[in-house]
Design goal:
The chain is an alpha/beta fold. About 65% of the residues lie in helices and about 10% in strands. The chain has three domains: about 5-95, Chorismate Mutase Domain, subunit A; about 105-250, Rossmann fold, CATH 3.40.50.720; about 255-380, Orthogonal Bundle (6-phosphogluconate dehydrogenase C-terminal fold). The protein contains 16 helices and seven strands. Helix 1 packs across helix 3 and helix 9 crosses helix 11. The radius of gyration is 26 Å and the shape is globular. The mean pLDDT is about 90.
């Protein structure tokens, strides 16, 4: 090694030691930040405050972006870094808040507590310190004892069985107990609960599955039924765990879910069905694919890696959903003439009309999908 290279290596070693020292300081500062977060958690637990505070988070991100500009750093890089830090902070808060019950001493009955989603709720309510009772299909002979003195009954069974179970359990519920369901449709279950129980009633739709490790920013739709004030502690509990509560009427919920769930899942099913029928070589297509294709194919594969019965229940839940899907299929057929003639002008005119309908969301979609694509590239 020449003197020049030795001198260069010595300088590199010195600079790297400086970087290592700065990295150590960063970790120490993150530790101090977490200590402050723990104090925030203690305060929130004491006053039953929500974990997620969107305005506070966006103000923090804006301030850090401005600081980055002033420091000669890339604002996008700093934003990404802080969103990771904030997300981790929320996860930690949610985990600690999971042991906080907003109605201490309350007893919760999970009807369908032996199913996957039922067991999920049993775990969360138990960790929050509630007395939890789990009821399966073989426990009806003990229904009186299971319902005695409960403060909340959550119906967590399949959509087709929900009205029947509600009707059967209604007579055994204490008058002041909250009755709730967690199905993905709301009109029929809500009507059944109001008819079967004279006390507080609320419909819930958690937009997540039993494999979700944290409720941080997970959406729970709440459909008011009767005595909102008496039901408030239930939604407050989910908010304390980090969930975002979206309130909607049962009618609005079901109309929107026709598109958000039924149509989306059916369109994904149809795409996968066509690929399978054509016996497309999936592995080979990925070698030629752009990140966006991989992302789209990943969503298709994700659907077929899960329970067929679950998606059948969602797609075929109501006549309205099936009618919408028939409309969707008919809309695809209307494109046959365009394909037969190969008229690009028709396609472009329709494309521009739809783009105008999407409006500003198009730019938002580009930003969000670009972020996901970048993350996919980093991983694969």
């Amino acid at each position: 090694m020449t003197d020049v290279s030795r001198e260069c290596q010595s300088e590199l070693d010195c600079l790297r030691k400086g970087i290592d020292a700065i990295d150590q300081q960063i970790v120490e500062l993150l530790s101090k930040r977490q200590q402050q977060v723990n104090q925030v958690v203690a305060l929130k637990k004491a006053h039953n405050l929500q974990v997620y505070h969107p305005a506070r988070e966006e103000d923090l991100i804006s301030a850090r972006r401005q600081q980055a500009r002033e420091a000669g750093l890339c604002p996008d890089f700093i934003e990404e870094l802080y969103r990771i830090i904030i997300h981790r902070s929320r996860v930690v808060q949610s985990g600690q808040m999971a042991v906080k019950g907003v109605k201490p001493g309350a007893t919760v009955l999970i009807v369908g507590g032996t199913g996957e989603m039922g067991r999920y709720f049993v775990d969360w309510f138990q960790r929050a310190g509630y007395g939890v009772r789990s009821m399966g299909s073989r426990d009806w002979e003990n229904i009186s004892a299971l319902c005695d003195g409960i403060d909340l009954a959550i119906i967590s069974v399949t959509i087709d069985k929900t009205p029947e179970i509600i009707e059967r359990i209604g007579p055994y519920l204490p008058p002041d107990a909250v009755l709730a369901d967690v199905t993905s449709i709301k009109k029929k279950p809500l009507a059944a609960m109001l008819a079967a129980h004279s006390g507080p009633v609320i419909g819930l739709h958690p937009l997540f599955g039993p494999t979700t490790s944290t409720l941080d920013k997970q959406i729970v739709v709440a459909t008011p039924g009767r005595d909102d004030a008496a039901c408030r502690w239930v939604t407050d509990q989910f908010a304390t765990w980090g969930s975002i509560i979206v309130t909607a009427t049962a009618e609005e919920h079901d109309q929107i879910m026709e598109f958000v769930q039924a149509l989306r899942h059916f369109a994904t099913f149809s795409f996968g069905q066509f690929l399978a029928a054509k016996n497309v070589p999936l592995a080979r297509t990925l070698e030629f694919s752009s990140p966006i294709y991989r992302l789209e194919l990943g969503m298709v594969g994700r659907l077929f890696a899960q329970d067929a019965g679950l998606y059948a229940e969602i797609i075929f839940a109501t006549p309205e959903r099936r009618a919408l899907l028939k409309e969707y299929i008919a809309s695809l057929a209307r494109n046959l003439d365009m394909l037969e003639t190969g008229d690009r002008s028709v396609f472009e005119a329709e494309f521009k009309k739809i783009a105008a309908w999407f409006g500003p969301f198009g730019e938002q979609a580009i930003r969000e999908s670009s972020f996901l694509i970048d993350k996919l590239i980093e991983r694969f």
